[in-house]
Amino acid sequence: MDTENSEANLDGAKLREDLAAATPEEREALLRETVRAQLASILPEATIEDDSNFLESGLTSLTALELTRNLMTLTDVEIPLVAVLEYPTPATLGHYLAEAFTAVAEGDAAPAGTAAE
After folding, report:
1. Which of 64, 77, 58, 79 is closest to 19 using CA atoms?
2. Phi and psi at residue 100, in whole multiples of 5°?
3. Across residues 32-45, what is the average pLDDT?
4. CA 97, 83, 71 angle in degrees (round to 5)?
5. Which residue among 9, 43, 74, 115 is buried most deeply as judged by most CB within 10 Å?
6. pLDDT of 109
7. What beta strand segments (E) does the chain contain?
8. Where in the chain are the domains?
9. Which Pfam families match (predicted)?
10. What is the pLDDT of residue 9?
11. Greatest CA span in the chain, whole angstroms?
């Protein structure tokens, strides 16, 4: 069943381990690829490139919610749904996630989507 496959793909322990050990450039590349892979699993008929616009690729509000939930599960970083609109490509969302992951991991900032004081 598709749900079973999705759950199997959402064990982010290895990804988080790789992200923690990565350089900033490697971290961004890993997250960009993670965004592309998750988007491809949600929209299997779409061709997803680094500069593919999510909405032009067929992402809807429901699939955007699924994408953000999957990415939050994989990264343990809080991602506001609006991030998909503010960072509408795998490259830009991957960059955003890399910065958010770094900030959370270093304890320098609140999780993504929350206001830093």
Report:
1. 77
2. -65, -45
3. 94
4. 50
5. 74
6. 55
7. none
8. 32-106
9. PP-binding (PF00550)
10. 56
11. 44
pTM (2 decimals)? 0.82
Task: Name the band, by pLDDT with cuts 50, 70 and 90, for residue 28.
Answer: very high
At a CB cut-off of 8 Å and minimum separation 6, what does 36 contact? 48, 49, 50, 90
Taking CA atoms, 43 is separated from 27, 28, 78, 101, in Å, by 24, 22, 22, 25
Cα 94 to Cα 31: distance, rounded to the nearest angstrom: 5
Structure tokens at 70: 């999957």
DSSP for 35-81, please give it.
Answer: HHHHHHHHSTTS---TT--TTTTT--HHHHHHHHHHHHHHH-----T
Is 1.10.10.350 the CATH number for 32-106?
no
The contacts found for 69-74 with CB under 8 angstroms, 24 or more apart, are: 70/6, 70/10, 70/38, 70/41, 70/42, 71/34, 71/35, 71/38, 71/97, 73/10, 73/12, 74/10, 74/12, 74/15, 74/16, 74/34, 74/38
Q: Which amino acid is at 107?
A: G
Contact between 94 and 20 (Cβ < 8 Å): no
